[in-house]
Design brief:
The protein is an all-beta fold. The protein has one domain: Jelly Rolls, CATH 2.60.120. It is built from one helix and eleven strands; from the N terminus they run ββαβββββββββ. Strands 3, 4, 6, 9 and 11 form a five-stranded antiparallel β-sheet that branches. A four-stranded antiparallel β-sheet has the order 5-10-7-8, with no helix packed on it. A two-stranded antiparallel sheet has the order 1-2. A hairpin with a 2-residue loop joins strand 7 and strand 8. The longest helix is centred in the N-terminal third of the chain and has 4 residues. It is globular.
Length: 166
């Protein structure tokens, strides 16, 4: 176990017994990746498609959700940087990403055809942390499906494809 965790019960030469909260403990500055075969799926909760080389798409009916347990010693604020891509084309030329933390909206970030991918950031004030936890919801407010735009038979309402969260 290479992360600090107070829910540590016992260890010997071969095993360490820890509480489940240690498995989802996020250490600030860790990079979370939602690409195939990557390390961060234990943090993803509702609202994500299966991963592909683009990352994982947030699904509009729920919004992509991430749950992080954070060390109580970290003073905050937290600065999250999302490396992402919006599902856009000339028929659907803009999209907004709303970021909410523990039920409080912290920022809305725009996307358009000229800036449909790249990094967007959100600052999370320390006072939004509840019980050492962050529930982060990423909602694309104008999500559409590829079927609606005539691109493919895919009926999922795609929001934002997230590659990494820093």
């Amino acid at each position: 176990m290479d992360k600090p965790c107070s829910d540590w019960f016992a260890e010997n030469e071969s095993y360490v017994i820890i509480g489940l909260t240690c498995l989802a403990l996020y250490v600030p500055n860790d990079v979370l990746s939602l690409a195939p075969s990557e390390n961060s799926w234990q943090y993803a909760s509702k609202g994500w498609s299966s991963a592909d080389p683009t990352g994982s798409w947030s699904l509009a009916d729920v919004g992509g959700q991430i749950d992080l347990n954070v060390p109580d010693t970290w003073p905050g604020p937290y600065a999250l940087i999302f490396d992402n891509l919006a599902y856009l084309n000339p028929k659907h030329s803009s999209q907004s990403l709303d970021v909410a933390v523990n039920g409080t909206q912290v920022v809305t970030r725009p996307f358009d055809l000229k800036s449909r991918n790249g990094k967007r950031s959100a600052t999370i004030p320390r006072q939004l942390v509840r019980n050492d936890s962050l529930h982060i919801a990423l909602e694309a407010t104008r999500a559409v499906s590829p079927t609606q735009l005539g691109d493919s038979a895919d009926t999922r309402r795609l929001g934002i494809a997230v590659k990494r969260i820093i």
